[in-house]
Fold this protein.
Amino acid sequence: MTKAARNGRGRYRIGIDVGGTFTDFVLVRGDGSLWLDKSPTTPADQSAGVMNGLAELAKREERPLADFLAAVDTIVHGTTTADNTMITQSGAVTGLLTTEGHRDEIELRRGFKEDIWDPAQSPPFAICPRRRRLGIRERLDFTGEVVVPLDELAVRGGIARLKKQGVESLAVVFLFSFVNPAHEKRVAEIVAEEWPEVTLSLSHEVMPSAPEFERTSTTLVNAYVAPKIRRYVGHLAARLEESGFRGRLLLMQSNGGIMTPDYVSRRAIAVLGSGPTGGVMGACHVAKAVGVESFIAGDMGGTSYDVCLVREGAAEVRSGWNWHHRYLIGLPMVDVESIGAGGGSIAFVEAGALKVGPQSAGSEPGPICYGRGGGEPTVTDANLVLGYLDPDSFCGGAFRLSREGVDEAILAAVGRPLGLALAEAAHGIFRVVNASMANAIRRVSAKRGVDPRELVLVAYGGNGPIHAPMQAEDLGIGEILVPRAAPAFSALGLLLTDPLLDELRSYIVPSKRIDLARLNRLVDDMEEKATAALAAKGSSRVTIRRFAQLCYPGQTFEMAVPLAARNGRVTAKDLAATIERFHSLHEELHTYASRSEEPILRGLRIQAVGSTRKPVLARAPRARGRAASARKGSRRAYFEGRCATVPVYDGPLLQAGHEIKGPAIVEETFTTVVIHPGHRAVIDALGNYRIEL
């Protein structure tokens, strides 16, 4: 019998989050204990990095890989494959069949331009050039009635033309197909006859609601990334199975839930932007456990900084105007804002100004101090020079950082151009990246009319606890919460997330003319399908959340408003309460409400949430002595404009109740907590760091 089995830790659950620099792992053993680990991300084939990390976990558990994976019940995986596909513009050769006269919908993009002050701004890269967008004679009216029958000969001719152009993935977007999908379904039948090998994305399945541009953009992006997502997920599942895994593989979605690979393969766009979502879900869970309901979640990894505002324990899920990689995604997504600011962000001087990011050294070659051939100074290099990082204990000592070439690179790129000494140049990099991240928090909070000074900053990611104190000072935030599992928090969040299905139905009508019978039929149909789908995936208990998509006349963006219902049925009284709730929410978000206007219902949405067994957050042992017992030494570090010798603590030895006053440095296995002068850190009952400014 193996040591793990003797200790009663034989069954496992694993959360895996693939980041731009590191792939994070959280292992939950049968006895509830956690183990965090990291493995360098392998951009060419992310599954290689995943399998490398699993092999290391098996070694730690003293089991052969096959034996270890056979004992794993569930793997929950967050992948950046969809985002990387858009960033690198390496998706499938994509074609579009659409209603005649609407082939340019994707380029008109409602006239939206990210920078209205730049008349020379170039358009986004074309995932489907005009030559591969073909109009088909057909037309439905807004009620779904056929005005012009589908020209099947034109469909077959269009298929032949797209075949000759080497199209690999086909999107089909017909007007009002979300009301009556008959024409799109018929195209699917013709494609099955003529072109069975092509990947097919039908708009009524990807996004069954208006408006037209949003649906076209969403369906095209789905078609563009779907083949790569399917290949990656299929490849990973095959490698896991070959290595002995027999459990359930689940994938993180951008709406805050998890689902099976077969579901994601049909709606691949569900994983676009899902990378930071696991961390937000974990932050909600941990913050609630310690009594923090409203906060700002800040995740600083190796490549990006992701910010999300959480109020009353729940992250906001936007269902419409979600722009990612300059394309609009019209599906519900956790509202996370990302900027290019991470440990691998490259520092440079341009026109006499110091800039940091968004370019990143990533994991290959990585920062100069990794010793893998990197030649441009990064935030991690600056943190090493400032003394915040210990070259011998980085990543738990898994590999050593080197100062070779770091000092000269920082001086050459930043110091000499700006007339700064080495420490000043490194601190300049530190300050600039902090300012960028603080500005991201300002934008997120200002958009929602929230004063960040009233909130707690929950800092996680491998680099988050190093930089959060200075961000909090800039913003006037009084408290920082650093979870004990902060360096692999997104991976932990995956294991704290439930299966979730979002269903949308279009129903466009002024609110006073809503047919309650029709509304209830639509809600019942969505609930029935979602509940059955989750039950088939093993969820015995399903919670339903209902929303009405409402707007004022003339508005192009609707709000998702909780739909009041008694005993599962929406009555006239419930509808009136929902309309009043819309006015109140609109006033809260936009500072005004037009109660004299009749709102318009644009659609209905339900969220079906299943249930999973979640890891229990263990309580930290109560401290019996002072924090000095965890002190491991001291070193020179840069604080308040000068270098000083400060105490260094061994994080895993700190216990609940221990208090550390700054300046000080705490080294956890995969992160470092920097406590500045005037700050005080207290370890709470769950082992988290509560830093008071």
